[in-house]
Write a structure and sequence with these properties.
3 helices; 5 strands; five-stranded antiparallel beta sheet; globular; alpha+beta; Beta-Lactamase; 34% helix
């Protein structure tokens, strides 16, 4: 399934704002992920797992924005409990929000 290419497109279109993206199943396990140089794959997996407790509470067609000390994390539900987590640099992360519905639709279409 082309999940990785969807995530890579999201990163490429929003470089250098997006640092990494992870697509998780309903238990917070990584289905696929990708990140820019310096973005640790295991950190993305940990981020996805930590979001799993709140992801089911996010209504369909909405996003959750989490502001951390050094980054911003966007979370969007995809389908069947699966969710997308995007780690961004602080400041210009709003442009990512506008593109999340397209990425969510693309991921859902290939499930």
């Amino acid at each position: 399934m082309p999940f990785r290419s969807i995530l890579e497109t999201l990163l490429a279109e929003h470089e250098p704002v997006v640092r990494g993206a992870i697509f998780c199943d309903d238990e917070g396990e990584r289905v696929d992920s990708c990140g820019v140089a310096g973005c640790d794959d295991e950190e993305l997996a940990l981020l996805g797992a930590s979001i799993a407790t709140v992801a089911p509470m996010i209504p369909k067609d909405t996003c959750l924005r989490v502001v951390l000390s050094s980054s911003v994390v966007w979370v969007a539900t995809v389908e069947s409990g699966c969710f997308l987590v995007v780690s961004c640099a602080r400041g210009r992360d709003g442009v990512v929000r506008a593109d999340l519905p397209r990425a969510v639709a693309a991921l859902a279409a290939h499930m």
